[in-house]
Amino acid sequence: MFRSHPLDSEIQDRTMREAFGAHAGALVARDPRVAVVLADISTDLFTEAAAAHPDRVVNVGIREQLLVGAAGGLALAGLRPIAHTYAPFLVERAFEQVKLDFEHQGTSGVLVSVGASYDWAEGSYTHFSPRDVALFDTLPGWRVLVPGHADEVPALLDRAVDGPEGAYLRLSLRHNASAHAGADGDLRVLREGSRAAVIAVGPLLDNTLAATEGLDVTVAYTNTPRPLDTEGLRDLASRTGNTVVLVEPYLEGTSAAVASAALADRPHRLLSVGVGRAELRRYGTADDHEHLHGLDAEGIAARLKAFL
């Protein structure tokens, strides 16, 4: 059975979280605007930065609403805050603070999560967050960055910190075998075909490539689903019979509205493949959840072949 996402370091020397910690610490050291707010998660990655800059590396404890509220206050004071913890606590639990302390106040910051949809499946449903990107779609202007490899993280974090808009960086233990894109947000074509344009987001690229082996389809990759490269999507669709498949590591259908709007001036077919909406009352491992949601290579291939 194809497995592209080991949860250890057999393929990848460092995790996305480790890449984030190292680069965020360096940003704090060289940019006096940058502040990091933590909630007892990943504090070991910021030991040196906190010792050198205690005024700009703050741990509020396990108080996620305060985490986002404090980051919003730092943004009002003219800093560029980076707030970090597990995805369900950063986005779902503290969404009111994201809405009010950033959006309503007219400020912006960088929110960096770990855990993704079901990385720590053994931790149970409290640590699952497949709805996070869908929630950000309810707010105007937020950039969403979903790296597929640790080597993509530094450039994406730079883009998030340097930009004026709010940014959500979604880190995961699931990853591709190698990095495939920088931070420009353009769709990168990795395989050419004529029957469909298959867009893989972040860590699902390797599974998508395996699923489409031998099929006459184009496969493209992005680690920047928001804003989605709609011009690139339109171009790929025009070359593949306006048939599009979106393979995303979060809630199925999250990007369907964006893709449909981009193709609204032409007849098109669209298939969304992602985390299912039904709650799986099984914990197991992340590999188990990937299989049960049909996001391993076999599951993606089955959906794609039926669609075509």
UniProtKB/TrEMBL annotation:
Domain Transketolase-like pyrimidine-binding residues, every copy: 14-175
GO molecular function: magnesium ion binding
Cited SMART domains: Transket_pyr
TM region positions: none
Cleaved signal peptide residues: none
Pfam families recorded: Transket_pyr (PF02779), Transketolase_C (PF02780)
PANTHER family: PYRUVATE DEHYDROGENASE E1 COMPONENT (PTHR43825)
Protein name: Transketolase
Naturally occurring in which organism (per UniProt): Glycomyces artemisiae
